[in-house]
Write a structure and sequence with these properties.
The chain has a two-stranded antiparallel ribbon with strand order 1-2. A hairpin with a 2-residue loop joins strand 1 and strand 2. It has one domain. It is built from four helices and two strands, in the order H-H-H-E-E-H. By secondary structure, it is an alpha+beta fold.
Length: about 80
């Protein structure tokens, strides 16, 4: 499994110290980018519908949060969400 994953561009070692990003092949197709972002949010993020009421009117908006210590991954998620 390790050989297979490294052949696909994943790095060995501490992901925080290495400041890993996503493999280049993921950037080649929008469907891959979407799937990768979904996986990252599933593991290190959350999605909620925030609801609040002001003067009897209910407001709802989506709220996405993502927490990670890898700057390249944070940038990937930010740019990916902006582009889709």
């Amino acid at each position: 499994m390790v050989k297979y994953l490294t052949s696909k561009g994943l790095s060995l070692g501490n992901k925080v110290c290495l400041q890993v990003g996503v493999p280049n092949w993921i950037l080649s197709k929008e469907d891959y980018i979407k799937a990768c972002i979904r996986g990252l949010i599933d593991t290190d993020g959350s999605f909620v519908l925030h609801r609040y009421t002001i003067k009897g009117k209910i407001y709802t908006y989506p709220k996405i949060s993502f927490s990670n210590r890898s700057e390249p991954l944070l940038e990937f998620v930010y740019q990916g969400l902006r582009s889709i």
